Amino acid sequence: MIITIDGPAGAGKSTVSRALASRLGYRYLDTGAMYRAVTLVSLETGEDPLVVAAGDVWATRVLDPALRSDAVDAAVSSVSCLPAVREALRGAQRDFLAQGDAVAEGRDIGSVVWPQAELKVWLDASPDERRRRRAAERGAEAGETALERDRQDAAQMIVPDDSVRVDTEGLAIDEVIESIVQLVEERA
C-alpha cells in the first residue's frame, strides 16, 4: 500500500510520516529532503540546480544535517519550484514508490507524483500553530520562514480531491498516527 501525506510546512508531515512508516513496517520517502539535498549541493558547488537534480550526487546528502540550515531554508523554494528539478526528482520518487509499501510525504505526492495511492492524507493546522511548531523546533525566525515558504510554494501544494484531511492542531503525534492507522485498516 502506498500512503501519501501532503500538507503545508509545520503541519507535522515529517514527524507523522516517519513514525507511521515505522509503525507499519513501510519504507519512508521524504521528498522535502530530496529538494533540500539538491539545494544544498547546488549551494556548495555553485552547480546549476537543474544539473544537480539530473545527476545522483544529491542522493548521498538526503540525511545531511545541513539540509536544515538557514541557507538551504532560504533557497529551497526557488529550487523546488523549477519544473525541470521537479520532473527529475519526480522520476526518482516514482521509482521508489513503484516498489510498494511506503509512506511518502511532500506537497504534491498524492496529486501529482503518485495519484493512484491507496490512501491520501492532507495534514493541516492553523498558520499560528504551524508557526509555533517551527519556532519551538528551530527558533522564532524558522516559524516565519515556514509560512513564507508556504506562500512561495503555493503552486506545488495541491490538495488531492480524494484525500482525507487531518487537522493536527491540538492533537498529540500518537493521536494523528492512530487516526491514519485506522484509515489504513479500513482500506486494507
Describe it for me?
- With 188 residues, the protein is of the alpha/beta class.
- The protein has a single domain (2-187), classed as P-loop containing nucleotide triphosphate hydrolases (Rossmann fold).
- It is 55% helix and 13% strand.
- It has helices at 13-24, 31-45, 49-54, 70-80, 83-97, 109-113, 127-138, 140-152, 173-187, and strands at 2-6, 27-30, 102-106, 119-124, 164-167.
- Strands 2-3-1-4-5 form a five-stranded parallel beta sheet, sandwiched between helices.
- Helix 7 packs across helix 8.
- It is globular and about 50 Å long.
- The model has no long low-confidence stretch (mean pLDDT 90).
Can you summarize this structure?
The chain has 188 residues and is an alpha/beta fold. The protein has helices at residues 13-24, 31-45, 49-54, 70-80, 83-97, 109-113, 127-138, 140-152, 173-187; strands spanning 2-6, 27-30, 102-106, 119-124, 164-167.
According to CATH, the fold-level topology is Rossmann fold
Straight-line distance between termini: 8 Å
Q: What is the total tally of β strands? A: 5
For the residues shown, what is the average pLDDT?
90
Enumerate the strands of the largest sheet in spatial order, edge to edge or round the barrel: 2-3-1-4-5
Low-confidence stretches: none
Given the C-alpha coordinates, what overall shape results? globular
Rounded Rg? 16 Å
CATH class: Alpha Beta
CATH hierarchy: architecture: 3-Layer(aba) Sandwich
Order of secondary-structure elements: EHEHHHHEHEHHEH
For the largest beta-sheet, the strand count, sense and barrel status come to: 5 strands, parallel
How many distinct helices? 9
Helix amount, in percent? Answer: 55-70%
Q: Structural class, from secondary structure content? A: alpha/beta
CATH superfamily: P-loop containing nucleotide triphosphate hydrolases
What is the number of domains? Answer: 1
